[in-house]
Design brief:
With 349 residues, the chain is α/β, with parallel strands linked by helices. Helix 8 crosses helix 12. The longest helix has 20 residues. It is globular.
Length: 349
């Protein structure tokens, strides 16, 4: 007999629940998503470039595009996403209770969170390689960590940044005073109101926050990188089918960039694959041969649906973080491995 646990089905306040058996051969959250016809995706909603609620009411950013890619693969329609804005302390609870199906919210992949004795989650591949930094005013006289001795630093409560900050400053024997906030907007407001000499977060978040300042050039990110922060989407632990499906959607975005398949040319590439039996790798990747999608519980052409929605990983990055975007961040480690970065995907075989 398989173990059955209650997970929320529908908006929580209605008190509707559905019993989902999780485990090998059993039902998966993936089945529930497909039956519902909609993906419930946890995001921040407050980080430009990653997930931000625009003036027209739409969510936009790299993390949002990941939600849309998952929806395209799982239900065949990238518009079928309900975004749930969550604070850092709320995010894991939302996964455990079933309020959301998955989380795409600048969350660091680390051992404590990934282990079965931690938060009970499973990470997808990393979608953004980041590092923690510190933002200060240019006229503050602060140019390095030593200049922050006995000063106040705004930090998000319940985040890895809080622990990293303490680890680094304790190792360097630099005394400081943390000012903790539950929410990114509160963190930024505290810094701008002068409640602290510096604010710390992932360098990408600092760049995003600074882009919204009235005078962004009056603030600088210090050169020191306090940590490595591999950011990845995640699902509730124990659901292998959903985790596998998420994993290969991310790998599809990376592989598409490697193969030069874009949102604009995916139909042409599909026609090539269909008409030319010799293009075996392309045929497998786009679902013409091999039935790879069915092994994941998805349509065999799920990659085509994903690429028609978001384009490949490079297109997603350029759209939200590229040189012409509102939050330009050099790709650095987030380039393909052949271009000097660390992004690589296993073969679609």
């Amino acid at each position: 007999m398989q173990c059955c646990r209650l997970v929320p089905f529908g908006v929580l306040l209605f008190g509707l629940y559905a019993c989902a058996t999780l485990g090998e051969g059993g039902a998966s959250r993936l089945d529930l998503i497909r039956q519902r016809g909609e993906l419930r995706c946890g995001v921040s909603g407050k980080i430009p470039g990653f997930s931000f609620l625009e003036r027209d009411g739409r969510y936009a950013g790299l993390d949002v595009d990941m939600c849309q890619a998952f929806a395209a693969a799982f239900v065949g329609d990238s518009s079928k996403v309900e975004y749930r804005p969550l604070t850092a302390p709320e995010r894991f609870t939302a996964l455990r209770t079933g309020e959301i199906d998955l989380l795409s919210r600048n969350t660091t992949f680390n051992l404590s969170r990934d282990a079965s004795g931690g938060n009970g989650v499973t990470f997808a591949p990393v979608v953004f390689h980041d590092g923690q930094g510190l933002l200060v005013r240019r006229n503050s006289g602060i140019n390095g960590l030593d200049d922050l001795r006995d000063k106040t630093i705004c930090v998000g409560s319940g985040t890895t940044t809080e622990q990293n900050l303490n680890d680094v400053f304790q190792a360097k024997r630099i005394a400081y005073k943390p000012v903790k906030y539950q929410d990114l907007n509160q963190l930024v407001a505290g810094y701008l109101q002068g409640r602290c000499s510096a604010m710390t977060s992932d360098r990408s978040q600092l760049a995003s926050a600074r882009s919204g300042f009235a005078q962004p050039n009056n603030h600088q990110i210090l050169p020191e990188v306090l940590s490595k922060e591999p950011l990845a989407p995640l699902s509730s632990g124990g659901d292998q089918r959903l985790a596998d499906a998420m994993r290969w959607v991310v790998y599809a975005l990376i592989t598409a960039e490697e193969m030069g398949i874009t949102k604009a040319n995916v139909d042409v590439k599909l026609q090539e694959a269909t008409s030319d039996p010799s293009k075996t790798a392309l045929r497998r990747f786009l679902g013409v041969d091999g039935e790879l999608g069915s092994k994941l519980g998805l349509r065999n052409d799920f990659v085509v649906s994903v690429l028609k929605t978001t384009g490949n990983y490079g297109e997603i990055y350029d759209r939200h973080l590229g040189p012409q975007s509102a939050v330009p961040i050099p790709r650095g480690l987030n380039q393909l491995h052949r271009d000097g970065g660390v992004l690589i995907a296993p073969p679609f075989q």
